[in-house]
Amino acid sequence: MHRSPGRVLASAVALVAVTGLAACSSSEPDASSSSPASSAPPTESARLDAAQCRDEPSQGRIDRTAHGLTFRTGEMRVAVGSGMSTARDNPGGIPTSTSADDDSACFGFTKWGNPSPEVPPDSLLFVFRGPGTDGAQIEFLVGELTGGVLPPIGSVRPTVGPLTKPINATVGVSVAGSYYQAGTCALKISSMSTDRASGTFTCPTATRTDANPLAPDDDVPYDADDSSTESTSPSGPSASGAKSPAVIGRPTTVTLTGFFEMTP
User: Fold this and answer.
1) Domain extent at residue 110
2) Residue 9 within any structural domain of the chain
3) Could you give the CA distance from residue 48 to residue 107 in angstroms, rounded to a whole number?
4) CA torsion, points 49, 46, 171, 51, in degrees to nearest 10?
5) Residue 179 or residue 33, greater confidence
6) Is residue 93 part of a domain?
7) Is the residue at 49 inside a domain?
8) 212-262, pLDDT tens digit by residue?
9) Which of these, 254, 95, 228, lies nearest to 176 by C-alpha position?
10) Theoretical Cys-Cys bridge with 112: which of 46, 129, 137, 172, CB 3.0 to 4.6 Å?
């Protein structure tokens, strides 16, 4: 049978259209096989067993020159508590036991940021991150570690005795949208060398602040007449009645205890 060129062209166009629709239909994802909720990353840190924040980090050599330190892996665990039961006077900086009314919440974070902890002109800063804006950091003056002794200059290598007592450090932790910082913490260094860094800390009073260094793009309101960054949001128990000082109630002050451990 003889077909006109116009009918042949029309049939070809129709065939292409049907094929295209079939291809589009087969490429559409199956709604039942994927769920945005199941693939979404967590935004808050999971609570750990309280005992995990009372672990003792590895012991090692303490090089008081604070020279050539570089760490890429490690962890920091912090117990956030609303009472003094988590900050008992213990030489190691970590409570050896907990009482029945101890309502601390334990969180864990992993090493993050610049491998070198040096912050000019005179500090060492270790940063750890969790999901979302959660994380923690610990900072102390180089002089606290070196005992005020200058670093090696040429062939001259000043010496200093062993570090036998805790030094002062600043510790901050961000959990569930709240950032707490303590400028006076007892830090007992267990090791500090090019091989390993570890230590335990206790902060009797950490204050909640609006400025969160772990979320630098946060829109933080500041009062031009008041330079203080302390939040004035009311604190108190949550409607659920659960005890988790770091994630409910938003207390203005908490205690911080824990440890860190890092390797190159």
Assistant:
1) 42-151+159-217+239-263
2) no
3) 6
4) 0
5) 179
6) yes
7) yes
8) 888 866 454 444 344 344 433 333 333 333 344 444 457 899 999 999 999
9) 254
10) 129
